[in-house]
């Protein structure tokens, strides 16, 4: 007999719900998605659950209905509510506040949230400080704060440097100045899709702010809206992956001391496709 999924092992409430539904159906074959919708107060809806699991926002009302449906004990219910708030937060300060509550409520942080790694990826500031710390001319927290082209206070820089050293992402050089231990850092996939998605949303906001500011002519902002075949889409994706790998290789092999820090964002997302509409219609009318 399978054990129910451990809520405290998740940093994405949608993934938890999907796994819980799979477990529940394995225990009770009569517990269909239609039955689940009925218990949520939506007897005529067959699309609510799929839409929610694909990213539809969970309202406060239905969050509480899920708490009752899942029969969550008090501690689990508190964690679930905060997890929903963390996943759906729209502002960085909301995410950070929710993260702190999750870490405090989590019974098994070493297993579920990976607290120290979460600390690094929860805010863009840690990555910016790490990049700036790789510039030889910046030999103190004060110098990093002054050189930053994005808003960074001295206390924020010092906090980020302490975290980098704790995670062994930075170490003192011969002069005692903290420097990155690796030129290129790649996120651990085990951290969870939602956490990395939240960080990327922050990077997009930084990009937006940089775009709106008067700045260096070296900045590159390029966009194009187009249509293509599925084969061309796959070719573009392969080209983007090659470019990503090539950029990492260039930075890794760079023989010269770093004297600047940059942010690179790549976005390639669908605006619509003829292949989707029939598939959605089929699901709704089933």
Summarize the structure.
The protein has helices at residues 13-27, 33-39, 48-53, 60-69, 74-88, 92-105, 115-121, 124-133, 141-147, 154-166, 193-212, 230-253, 276-285; strands at 170-172, 178-180. With 286 residues, it is mostly helical.
Query: What count of helical segments does DSSP give?
Result: 13
Number of domains: 2
- Give the overall shape: globular
Span between termini: 31 Å
Poorly predicted regions are: 109-114, 277-286
Sheet with most strands: strand arrangement: 1-2
Order of secondary-structure elements: HHHHHHHHHHEEHHH
Mean pLDDT: 81
Helix content: 55-70%
Largest sheet: 2 strands, antiparallel
Structural Rg: 23 Å
Quickly give the structural class.
mainly alpha
Total beta-strand segments = 2
Strand content: under 5%
Account of the 3D structure:
- It is built from 13 helices and two strands.
- The chain is mostly helical and 286 residues long.
- The chain has two domains: 7-112; 121-213 and 243-253, Arc Repressor Mutant, subunit A.
- The protein has a two-stranded antiparallel ribbon.
- Helix 9 (141-147) crosses helix 10 (154-166).
- The chain is globular.
- The model is unreliable at 109-114 and 277-286 (pLDDT under 50).
Secondary-structure map:
Layout: H1 13-27, H2 33-39, H3 48-53, H4 60-69, H5 74-88, H6 92-105, H7 115-121, H8 124-133, H9 141-147, H10 154-166, E1 170-172, E2 178-180, H11 193-212, H12 230-253, H13 276-285
Antiparallel strand pairs: 1-2
Helix pairs in contact: 5-6, 8-10, 9-10
